[in-house]
Specification:
CATH class of the largest domain: Alpha Beta
Shape: elongated
Structural class: alpha/beta
Distance between the termini: 18 Å
CATH topology of the largest domain: Rossmann fold
Low-confidence stretches: none
Oligomer: single chain
Radius of gyration: 23 Å
CATH superfamily of the largest domain: Phosphoglycerate kinase, N-terminal domain
Number of helices: 14
Largest sheet: 6 strands, parallel
Number of domains: 2
Helix content: 25-40%
Strand order of the largest sheet: 5-6-4-1-7-8
Length: about 400
Amino acid sequence: MAARTLDDVDVKGLRVLLRADLNVPMQGGMISDTSRLERVAPTIAELAGKGAKVIVCSHFDRPNGQIVPAMSLRPIAEALGRILGKPVAFAEDCVGPVPGAAVALLPDGGVLVLENTRFHRGEESNEPRFSRELADLADIYVNDAFSAAHRAHASTEGVAHLLPSFAGRLMQAELAALEAALGNPARPVAAIVAGSKVSTKLDLLGNLVGKVDVLVIGGAMANTFLGAQGHDVGKSLQEKDLYPTALEILETAKAKGCEIILPVDLVVSETFAVNPPTQVVGVDAVPQEMMALDVGPKTVNALIARLPSIKTIIWNGPLGAFETQPFDAATNALAAAVEAATASGNLVSVAGGGDTVSALRAAGVAGLTYVSGAGGAFLEWMEGKTLPGVAALTLSRYPD
């Protein structure tokens, strides 16, 4: 990895501006999932343990450049302190005299969380002046927010050009995992891409057919491909206007030597509800009044049978409507098999995307090589796009 890491700097006594992603889900004013805090905690603990003054900045929600009290990071700073097991100070602003005074009081090994960067319009517009004000608080910059690296904002991109810049441990792990999955992977490489719409993943599919050996298409996306091939999928969700695009993707894959695997059977129902009456049918036998809500057991068993011949797998999207039983069955079965193959040491498995992470958690699967907590950034990386936050680290012109 071209980006410098914490192994390349002695942080003792330094003011470290750490870009984290503290944009956690909230329900009723309470944090409903602390995963993002838990993921960044090791970097914070390491920096503090080495004697750095750790200044954490992050966005939260979409205040659109206005001060919105309900979007303050104060309660999240308190939760972070509980996870770290140490006091965490809080500054009522992220630039100017208020955080400046708070930083001046911060001891070596202390942790300070700044207020929501998006309370200032200069954050999302990547305003040079705002970047400079953030940079003035610190001696070095550490980005540990891969999940926000697809945004060219002041705290993710602009400040990296103004301070010596490094990747935090979470960023380092994300980049290493993605390099192992798509950059220089052990082959054969398989990708599982699923979801509701082909239209949202055209760039992804276009990039993957030139990089992987096997591409599995599932979810409602598969219905569009099946329909394009002449199968009648009944009332299943599909995008008929993308039939020509689906056929073009199939032709491109064939030309590039990428095998595309589509379902051979489907779990169908007249009703999308919990535990409705269902049938398992072949892709050429979907009743007109029914819709496909999961791939069938024959498809899943065939995928599992292929795993011993695969060395690397990258997964984005559940195979069916996993939130509603029994349409989680295919995803659960394949996830368990991928976990077992990973545990045997024969498979490198990387998964990411919000629904994918939720599906794996629901399946009780935690033993993949790496599960990315990033959503949009993970998808854009898979699409082959340059992520501004990553590029700023790897191309930083600031001297040592």
